Amino acid sequence: MQMNREKLMTMATAVRTGGKGSVRRKKKAVHKTTTTDDKRLQSTLKRIGVNAIPSIEEVNIFKDDSVIQFINPKVQASIAANTWVVSGSPQTKKLQDLLPGIINQLGTDNLDNLKRLAAQFQKQMPAAAAPVSDDDDDDVPELVAGETFEAAASEGQTA
Fold first, then answer.
1. Cα-based angle 77, 82, 85 (whole degrees, multiple of 5)
2. Could you give the residue ranges of the DSSP H alpha helices within 27-147?
């Protein structure tokens, strides 16, 4: 152990960084930044002909059981190239968390997910809390053969 410390100390004194007569670096370290990737992406999108779409408040991307939600994103689109670019900070949420507000956004693809979610909700709901269906058909009178509602209404007005 003592031998290693001595060797290390002699090697440390022999190392010289900078100054006259020091060894030059053989290769310059290149630090890539993410801005070059962003610039490259923007130039490619410009070549495709992508235009910004203003005043979009929310974008929801539906997956099997979850929704990727962007609030106030930057949206760009090129209809000719069938390309949509959504950039912003995403949040992954469950479908049932967003349900009341996004029913009008659900398409036919998500109808099965909605049915499955409703079935799960029915299973979770205890039997005691389930709504009891009473037969309220007693209030509606039975139809008499040969009479119509219009004829009964006109008789009621003349009488």
1. 35
2. 34-48, 95-102, 111-124
Range 16-55 burial, b when 16+ CB lie within 10 A, else e: eeeeeeeeeeeeeeeeeeeeeeeeeeeeebeeeebeeeee
Tell me the β-bridge partners of 83.
78
User: Average pLDDT of each block of 10 consecutive residues along the chain (159 residues)?
Assistant: 76 70 72 75 88 88 81 90 89 77 66 70 60 59 70 69
Angle, CA 39 vertex, CA 58 and CA 81 arms, to 5°: 60
pLDDT of residue 128: 45
pLDDT at 34: 66
Kindly report whether the global pTM for this prediction surpasses the value 0.70.
Answer: no
Phi (first) and psi of residue 39, to 5 degrees: -65, -40
**Structural domains for the chain:** 43-124 (2.20.70.30)
Cβ partners under 8 Å of residue 88, min gap 6: 59, 70, 71, 72, 73, 74
